[in-house]
Every structure is written in structure tokens, then in C-alpha cells.
Amino acid sequence: MLPAGFYDSVVAEFDRRVGRFNRRASEIETKTGLSPCYYLDAAAVEVPAVT
User: Fold this and answer.
1) How many other β-carbons are positioned within 10 Å of the β-carbon of residue 30?
2) What is the pLDDT of residue 28?
């Protein structure tokens, strides 16, 4: 596990960058206990192939 302060700063930066384009999935975070979660447009997401 990361130290809480470091984790919080990583999440804040991730949210700053990703949150500009995607809406936060707060209800999913509440149900799963995982965060941060975002809604993504599946048609716009490109995942690189794993080789």
C-alpha cells in the first residue's frame, strides 16, 4: 500500500487530468469501495494490445 498522503496526491492529479473529460462514477465508488472510478465512452477508449 502507498502511504495515505502519497496516494491522495496521486488520486488528485489523476482526477485533475482524467476528470476534465470523464464524469466521476461516485455511486460505483460507494458500492465497491474502490476509487477513483469514471464513466468512459467505450467507443472512444483505445486500449493498447498486450504482447
Assistant:
1) 11
2) 96
Cα-based distances in Å from 17 to 32, 38, 43, 51: 23, 12, 20, 27
Q: Which of 40, 12, 31, 23 is nearest to 2 (CA)?
A: 12
- Number of helices followed by number of strands (H, E) in the chain: 2, 0
Q: What are 1-51's pLDDT values in tens digits?
A: 789 999 999 999 989 988 888 899 999 999 999 999 999 877 676 766 777
The H-assigned helical ranges of the chain are: 4-18, 26-32
